[in-house]
Design a protein that fits this description.
mainly beta; six-stranded mixed β-sheet; four-stranded antiparallel β-sheet; 3 helices
Length: about 400
């Protein structure tokens, strides 16, 4: 040892310290990152049937946590993944709400303030797009994973009023297309393919609580629970019970976590103002008309210019779209491309790789700190689809913003 120089000893000491630190960080991540898989309540579907279900008080990590991912897929009673060409997952949304612990089971005895939704940071009006997580047919191939050390903070007791509990619900819409006369039309909820009641247009209201007109050719309102999509004559497929299986990863909240806020933007957002107040009017879905003036291979573009009340550093971005999507792009006010989310289409015959079906949307993970959206900045969102008649098209863009970066 007496022949080893002081410099070498210092170097060895530093290497030992670094190795211990790396091991310690590895152990920290290994011990504290948790992962669990849950299954929603099951519901029965037959060939051509529509299911639009809401399940309250779903299983969700308890306590003050930082959620790292929330992913899901449709499965049958045995837990086998169901391919999209049999049952099409139109969408699933995980929505937060708070409930008075003394709320009565009898609706007649409940008070207006016993229950309320706690929406994401997005600016859409009312209860449109209030969820924190949710995709559709692209779910299996679209990850919601957030890089370290960022997480979506949930269960903070200081944000829950005394006497209330924070809970979660799942909203699920699935379309069984086995034996469907027009599979594509069924997945787009074409009104003329559904067994709508005769007074449908007289009793159904739109997102503004106004009666639907016969100009409404398809979308969410024509895919109501227990309706039926038109079948090939004589086809009769077996009924089965299905569920949404979802996997959540999370960490217990601590000083090492950096919170991100969830914003869901909509390419149908019609921005107006009332003096100094900005008014958002999201439609959630739209129709691409049958005969447009565009020609050739030009996609149909749906565009919205959306002012951001509060900005932050962009950590994660992706789009929720339907089959036929070309891409979706979010631009900064100066025209810079913040993220383009592109589709992946299947080429096989198994769940997760269904030929010609949308199986995933790409994710943008900017280097933390490289993209900052300013308070009040006007973002431009463009969603592009193949230019053909399409109903119930969606152009939602998910962005996670961090107000601060890790120290």
């Amino acid at each position: 040892m007496k022949f080893i120089s002081k410099a070498i000893l210092i170097s060895l000491a530093i290497m030992l310290l670094l190795s211990r630190t790396s091991y310690s960080l590895f152990q920290y991540s290994k011990v504290h990152t948790k992962r669990a898989t849950f299954v929603s309540e099951s519901f029965e579907m037959g060939s051509g049937s529509i299911a639009a279900k809401t399940f309250f008080n779903i299983e969700f990590p308890k306590g003050h946590v930082g959620v790292k991912s929330f992913d899901s897929e449709l499965v049958d009673e045995e837990g086998n993944p169901i391919p999209s060409f049999e049952t099409y997952l139109h969408h699933w949304f995980a929505i937060k709400y708070i409930q008075n612990i003394t709320m009565s089971d009898d609706p007649k005895l409940r008070h207006p303030d016993d229950f309320s939704f706690k929406r994401n940071e997005g600016m859409c009006n009312g209860n449109i797009l209030p969820h924190y997580w949710g995709f559709g047919v692209e779910s299996r191939g679209t990850t919601s994973n957030i890089p370290e050390p960022f997480a979506i903070e949930q269960g903070n007791p200081t944000n829950v009023p005394e006497g209330y509990e924070e809970k979660w619900l799942l909203n699920i819409m699935a379309i069984d297309t086995r034996g469907a006369e027009d599979k594509k039309g069924c997945t787009e909820c074409r009104c003329d393919l559904m067994n709508l009641p005769k007074d449908f247009y007289n009793v159904t209201v739109d997102v503004h609580n106004q009666p639907l007109t016969t100009d409404y050719k398809g979308g969410l309102f024509c895919c109501q629970d227990n309706l039926q999509c038109k079948q090939i004559d004589g086809f009769q497929g077996p009924k089965r019970k299905i569920s949404l299986r979802y996997t959540i990863s999370w960490v217990d909240w601590n000083k090492h976590q950096v919170p991100v806020k969830v914003y869901i933007l909509d390419s149908t957002d019609r921005i107006t103002s009332n003096g100094s107040e900005i008014i958002h009017d999201c439609q959630a879905e739209y129709t691409i008309p049958a005969n447009t003036n565009s020609s050739g291979d030009s996609p149909h573009v749906q565009k919205a210019n959306i002012p951001m009340n509060k900005g932050g550093y962009l950590i994660y971005a992706t789009a929720h779209m339907h089959s036929g999507v070309v891409n979706a792009t979010l631009y900064a006010e100066n025209g810079q491309t913040l993220c383009t989310s592109t589709p992946m289409y299947g080429s096989g015959n198994e769940a997760g790789n269904e030929k010609d079906y949308l199986i995933g949307m790409s994710i943008c993970y900017p280097q933390p700190g490289s993209i900052k959206i300013n308070d009040g900045e006007i973002l431009t969102l463009e969603s592009r689809y193949v230019n053909e008649f399409r109903t119930g098209a969606m152009g939602h863009f998910y962005i996670y913003l961090a107000e601060n970066l890790p120290q």
